[in-house]
Amino acid sequence: MTAQEKIKELFQLALEAKETSYSPYSKFRVGAALLCEDGTLVKGCNVENVSYGATICAERTAFVKAVSEGHRKFTALAVSTDQEEFISPCGICRQFVGEFVTKDMPVYFLNKSGEHREYKFEQLLPLSFGTEQGEKYIL
């Protein structure tokens, strides 16, 4: 499979993932798909909770699933919504994702039509507090 075909598969999985979203409160469905370094694809959806604070976003769902299965290196992330505009991950997700990815990893936003925009992770969280600072100041 070519790299372009794998990205197309990633996009399709992100679009499919939002179909299993549990979002009875906001009605804002989000799907995510994560491409692991070994070629494994992992999907996630947002899962809401009546307390809102216990809600988990699609991006974090995908990463938690992947990490819990032993994956630690990732090469791309795609995020889809039912909106015509392109929606970016929330701040908590950006910080969470930053724990596991390189600054130049591509992140794709997909709208309801399946059109996409591509960004490098660093564009989503410039001047981030990452593992470099953790190793220097915390660990």
**Cα-atom Rg, whole angstroms?**
15 Å
N- and C-termini, Cα separation: 41 Å
Low-confidence stretches: none
Biggest sheet statistics: 5 strands, mixed
What characteristic shape results from the CA principal axes? Answer: globular
How helix-rich are the residues, as a percent range? 25-40%
Q: Determine the number of helices (DSSP H or I, runs of at least 4 residues).
A: 5
Number-wise, the strands total 5
Mean pLDDT: 94
Quaternary structure: single chain
Strand line-up in the sheet with most strands: 2-1-3-4-5
What fraction of the residues are assigned to beta strands by DSSP? 15-25%
Order of helical and strand elements: HEEHEHEEHH
Secondary structural class? alpha+beta
Model description:
- With 139 residues, this protein is of the alpha+beta class.
- It contains five helices and five strands, in the order αββαβαββαα.
- It has helices at residues 3-17, 58-68, 91-98, 121-124, 131-138, and strands at 30-36, 41-45, 74-81, 106-110, 116-120.
- A five-stranded mixed beta sheet has the order 2-1-3-4-5.
- A hairpin with a 4-residue loop joins strand 1 and strand 2.
- The longest helix is centred in the N-terminal third of the chain and has 15 residues, at 3-17.
- The N and C termini lie far apart (41 Å).
